[in-house]
Each structure stands twice: as structure tokens, then as C-alpha cells.
Amino acid sequence: MNAVYVSDKGQVTLPARMRKKLGIKSKSKMEVELRENEIVLRPVRSIKDVKGIFRGVALGETKDWETIRRETEEAIAREVVSEDSR
Q1: Which 8-state DSSP code applies to residue 79?
Q2: Which fold has domain 1-44?
């Protein structure tokens, strides 16, 4: 466990090795969740981070770009719904 201090402005500094492991850089967006008596921080992935995620679909079973677009939208919608249900 790592201890960090809270500044007068309510800011905390995340340890460098944790930032590096999670790919958190200056200006990275973070999701903050309050769970009973704890605060959970998660990095928010940018659309640039997920580029190529459906490359396997594009190169695999499906050749039709309309189907790929629809499958991509459905996968993103499922991910958004699962994030909202947490």
C-alpha cells in the first residue's frame, strides 16, 4: 500500500510507478468513483488508445464494412452499459 498526501486544494500525487504501469500521463483523464468509504480512480481510455481493437474482426470473418461498423457500435454500446452498471 502507498500513502499519499492531500494538498490544500484537494489534490493527490499518484506514485510514478503506478502512473507508468497504467499509462497515466500529464493531462490524462481519470474516472472517480465513491464506494462507501473509499475512492476508486481509473484512467479513462481515449479513442486513440482503442484504435485497432476491431482489426481482427475487419481481417477475419467479416468483409462487409457496414457489418463491421454495426458490430463496432454494438460492442461499444455493451461496454458503455457495463461501465454504467458498476
Answers
A1: H
A2: Pemi-like Protein 1; Chain: D (2.10.260)
Closest to 47 measured CA to CA, from 15, 19, 79: 79
Q: What is the pLDDT of residues 68-85, one digit of tens each?
A: 778 778 888 787 766 555
Cα separation, 51 vs 49, in Å, equals 6
pTM over 0.85: no
Q: 476508486: which residue's cell?
A: 40
pLDDT at position 51 is 65
d(CA 68, CA 50) in angstroms, rounded, equals 15
Query: For residues 86 and 80, is the Cβ–Cβ distance under 8 A?
Result: no
Domain segments of the chain as ranges? 1-44, 45-86
Q: Are 31 and 44 in contact (CB under 8 A)?
A: yes
Task: Give CA–CA dist 19/72, Å, rounded.
Answer: 29
